[in-house]
Amino acid sequence: MTRIIAGSRGGRRLTMPPGDQTRPTSSKVREALFSSLASWTGGSSGPADVALKGWAFCDLFAGSGAVGLEAASRGAAPVMLVESSRRALRTIEQNVAAVDLEVEIRRDAIQDLVRRQSPYPFDIVFLDPPYELANGAIEAILRDLVANDWLTGEGLVVLERSSREPAPHWPDALSDTWEKKYGETVLYFGAG
């Protein structure tokens, strides 16, 4: 069990998908992620529930939906949660109902989805793919996000990976890159 950390639904409990198919982003990493996002968006000086107000957010490989729901709790809209696992999708639906936030939920294979034109551009796209997904596949997803207008012109992509994996090669359109390490987890940031 985990919780939404801050914002309009801060403290609300979230359930995790059963089994070991998903690997939830730890509370420590989520807090660090949203602190970085608030700084990047300029929302770090205001209340947490509006820190991402006006920013469109997409959570790919959503798992429990915790990251996308955290974004919605902090004011992001629209928010899209995308997951391919039926089991995880049921958990996402339960969590969305429990916290009563307006988000779009999609069941789709991420690699196929990003090859299609985005329904609208996102300011922030977060990816937490399975650690066993090869870097080549991840780099193809990054290229497709850019090529198929998943990002606004100055959008930000955040990729969560194991610190044992090599850093991704970013598409030229996401040339402003940096990373932050938290134990065995690395957050890679790429901005347009």
Could you outline the blueprint of secondary structure elements for this entry?
Elements: E1 2-3, E2 13-14, H1 27-41, E3 57-60, H2 66-73, E4 79-83, H3 86-99, E5 104-107, H4 110-113, E6 122-127, H5 135-147, E7 151-162, E8 176-182, E9 185-191
Parallel strand pairs: 3-4, 3-6, 4-5, 6-7
Antiparallel strand pairs: 1-2, 7-9, 8-9
Protein name: Putative RNA methyltransferase
Region (Disordered): 1-26
EC number: 2.1.1.-
User: Which class of secondary structure composition applies to the elements?
Assistant: alpha/beta
Strand order of the biggest β-sheet: 5-4-3-6-7-9-8
Radius of gyration: 15 Å
The number of helical runs is 5
Tell me the number of structural domains.
Answer: 1
Helix share bin: 25-40%
* CATH class (first level) name: Alpha Beta
Into which percentage range does the β-strand content fall? 25-35%
Poorly predicted runs of 5 or more residues: none
CATH homology superfamily: Vaccinia Virus protein VP39
Oligomer: single chain
Total beta strand runs: 9
CATH architecture: 3-Layer(aba) Sandwich
Tags for this model:
alpha/beta; 26% strand; nucleic acid binding; Rossmann fold; 5 helices; 9 strands; DNA_methylase_N6_adenine_CS; globular; 192 residues; methyltransferase activity; two-stranded antiparallel ribbon; 7-stranded mixed β-sheet
